[in-house]
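Hi support team,

I'm filing this because I wasn't sure whether my run with protoporphyrin IX containing FE finished correctly. The job status page said complete, but I'd like someone to confirm that the output block is well-formed before I use it downstream. Pasting the exact inputs I used:
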Amino acid sequence: MYEYSDFDEAFVRARAAQFRQQVERRLDGSLTEEEFRPLRLMNGLYLQLHAYMLRIAIPYGTLSAGQMRQLAMIAERWDEGYGHFTTRQNIQFNWPKLVDVPDIIDALADVQMHAIQTSGNTIRNTTTDVFAGAAADEIADPRPIAELIREWSTDHAEFQFLPRKFKIAITGTEADRAVIRAHDIGLQLVEKDGEIGLKVLVGGGLGRTPMLGQVIRDFLPVADLLPYLEAVISTYNLMGRRDNKYKARIKITVFENGLDAFKAAVEEEFARIRPTFSGVDQEILRVIAAQFAPPAFKNDPVDSYEAALSVDPVFRRWVARNITAHKVENHAIVTISLKEHGKTPGDATADQMRVMADLADRYGYGELRISHEQNVVLPHVAKADLPAVHAELLRAGLATANVGLLSDMICCPGMDYCALATARSIPVAENLATHFRDIGLEDEIGNLKIKISGCINACGHHHIGHIGILGLDRAGVENYQITLGGDAGPQAAIGDKTGPGFAYDEVVPAIERILRAYLALRESPAETFIDAFRRLGAAPFKEALYGENRDAA
Amino acid sequence: MARKFTPKVLTANDLRLGDVVYMTASGDWTRCHAEAELLEDEADAELRLLKAHGQSGIVVGAYLADAKAGPDGPEPVHFREAFRSRGPSNYDLGKQADSKRGTAHV
Amino acid sequence: MSVIVRDDGFHAEDFAGTAVEIASDIKSDELVQLASGADMVRILFPSFSDGRGFTLARRLRDAGYAGRLRAVGPVIADQYAMARRSGFDEVEIPDDLAARQPEEQWKFRADWRAHDYRARMKG
Ligand code: HEM
Ligand code: SF4
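And here is everything the job wrote out:
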């Protein structure tokens, strides 16, 4: 795993000191709230509904056991004993006090972490495939490049006050578990004539006007990456709209100017910038890459694992749902579900964080990941250790065997925490999960991605859920719009609205009508909801949703 | 056409702690919605808001929120303000928990 | 009136020649031409949250402009390092801002060369 260089260490300490000073200057009146706001946002500090909220970067979703323990400590000492893992592979604490935040930032720096650029109109945390470095299907581990981007973009003088936030995602596989098409820039490692390079997409983004990224370069040599990113982002910095924040994202810049004109401006700028890069970044990349070398995998036989599989149905079920193939035969990737039915998706208590950290130390080579689906992953576990891991997860309430099922939802904080929300999202997720468990249909329905946002900003990715749920405020009452047919993978698609929205207590029955229609219409249990939707189109599902009510409505 | 003014409370967040606060009749800040002053006159409400903007060393993000008179004092009208006056619905935290701990009036 | 900020703190205006003034919405093909040969270029920041000036400065420097380069407007002390790293020599701020953000707060970032990731990547 990546360890801070002296340079990183000195920088993070200096930034912590600067932020401490900025908080003091806010309190003594040298900084107005208007001036302080972008500064606190540059350090991940929001003001939410009930309190401040601190968003801490987990670069490319990778975390050491020691870092996870420190998050548990922070949760207990300065917050309310839990944290919320987000679809941006970050963690959010919902109850910090402004006066304590400088101490929290110091505690983060103690374990090589920070909250820099987790907010604000700047380049955010680069996200990647949660299975990077462990998956059997990747061309190369994308994390060294993600780390290179982290270093280059951190405190980048030119890009701290962009027209709007800027999100980059990178994947090493065609399967795309990083949703690169929904990012301002999406990068995919590709191979051409034995050389590894990058396919570059630009102009994706969700929010008010969801758009999927378009290819701007089929094959960019890795050595050109940083100057190319500079060319794209400085072009956007000058061309992006600043008169309307809903039109300020790069997706609108690309859309309004057209990909060709935007690309021409980028290439012109790239020609200017490229010669100013000497190539030392590639040496730095080599040093970084060495740190992502895989651990020395154990050679344990898998007999005990197979024995447990044959005798323990609970274990078997968990393995079937929560285990993914590892590139090494006798190892596995473990997904720890943070989606226990009826609980807040993505939340973990301090105790649970410590359990996961201990498991990572004992069985997982000290490494953890945060997935954009708001779960925690142990990327490398010997199969021989899986029964022990499962037993300990059971004790900690972390063995929910629902990965990929209906209750494994992405859900934003919504009106329970978020100042921008128009409706709640967490209780909708809780109600859906418990209802479908109680009526016994969750397994029958099988693989399904439901994603819920509490407002049009789409932090819960609702546009790219097979079923998306968007909470709105209709004349002072919560109302939920349903979209169908979205997808986050290589076949990325923006879902279509079904029609009029539903009241808070009508959401669960509405989703049930859709899913019962699916069960009745599918060709076989092997045909998933999204496959059936692609075959049948929206009509039968809309009929199920609105048919019986049409007269009343 | 001028819209009819509906009663408001003046609310903000505490700068240091982040907690939701409301302005009382005496011009102090309280953490309890029911102790807020119900502002029924538009000019008066705007004046209060200006006063709050001048207190940026104490509170942030002041605004006027719809409220109505209730038996124990002003009550929120919109569900957003109801959440702000109470806390999140997924955990017993925020004001709903403080009031049990007896700290609602700090 | 305004105050000029440099690494060693506040100064009064000490430039007497003619400066070329560049607004942040300038067309990018006019930028270099306008600046060429100028003794001083002043790039105007309409607000501290509008970061176009940083890109304009970097572009001018990449294009070879070697004269004096000044950021003008309500730039805040916390942006001083960004301005210097982008190629500005100095910042010109209004008096009321200078009163609220006194000299020490600007000199705190006179170490703008330290901890510069991008410079390290560029070599
Ligand atoms: C609670 C405080 C939060 C605030 C104030 C907030 C604010 C926003 C806003 C304003 C946007 C729309 C940006 C635009 O379209 O220009 C957005 C998008 C987004 N946010 Fe959040 N967000 C919050 C929490 C979260 C959380 C918890 C997550 C992860 C679960 C998240 C992930 C995202 C994602 C993935 C998008 C959409 C993708 C895109 O940027 O196009 N946000 N957020
Ligand atoms: S989608 Fe809306 S409600 Fe949900 S976290 Fe984002 S801004 Fe808040």
